[in-house]
Amino acid sequence: MEGPGRTRGARGGDGASEFLVLDSCHSTWLFDVPAKRFRRILKGLDLDPALAATDWRSYERLELSDDSDAFVVVLNAAGTRRIRSWRHVDGCEQCEGERTAELSLDDIRRFALA
Q1: Which of the ends of the chain has fewer CB neighbours closer than 10 A, N or C?
Q2: Average pLDDT, the chain
Q3: 46-77 burial, b if ≥16 CB within 10 A, otherwise e?
Q4: What is the pLDDT of residue 4?
Q5: Is 109 within 8 Å of 34 (Cβ atoms)?
Q6: Residue 104 has what DSSP assignment?
């Protein structure tokens, strides 16, 4: 389902790669699921998005909550290194409804191939 905070799919410029895209309050998370790597594109900064993107980083697994908008990126096999975030939704309790700019699919494709 698409919309604020919802999961979006993006196909890479080569047409073969599929990416899972999650919008949190301050970042767009781009997951290359087959390669088990992710990167974040920070939102709301007065910078070129290319300067506000993290490098690709490996992860062990992604846990999406069934009963909330929370998700956890597990970074190692032992599960001791984790990043927890929340998908941004309308009336978001995490950021008190402050909206940050969303990235276009063209921008996401550009970051997927970088």
Answers
A1: N
A2: 77
A3: eeebeeebeeeeebeebeeeeeebebbbbbee
A4: 40
A5: no
A6: P
Ramachandran region, residue 33 (left: φ > 0; alpha: ψ -120 to 50; beta: rest): alpha
Please report the sign of the dihedral spanned by the C-alpha atoms of residue 45, residue 113, residue 21, residue 65.
negative
Higher pLDDT, 78 or 53: 78
Could you read off the pLDDT of 20-52 as tens digits, one per residue? 999 888 888 999 999 999 999 887 766 666 677
**What residue has token string 């506000």?**
52
Q: Reduced to 3 DSSP states, what percent helix, strand and coil does the chain have, rounded to the nearest 5? A: 10, 35, 55
Percent above pLDDT 70 for the chain = 61
Query: Domain ranges in the chain?
Result: 8-112
Q: Which residues make Cβ contacts (< 8 Å) with residue 55, sequence separation at least 6?
A: 39
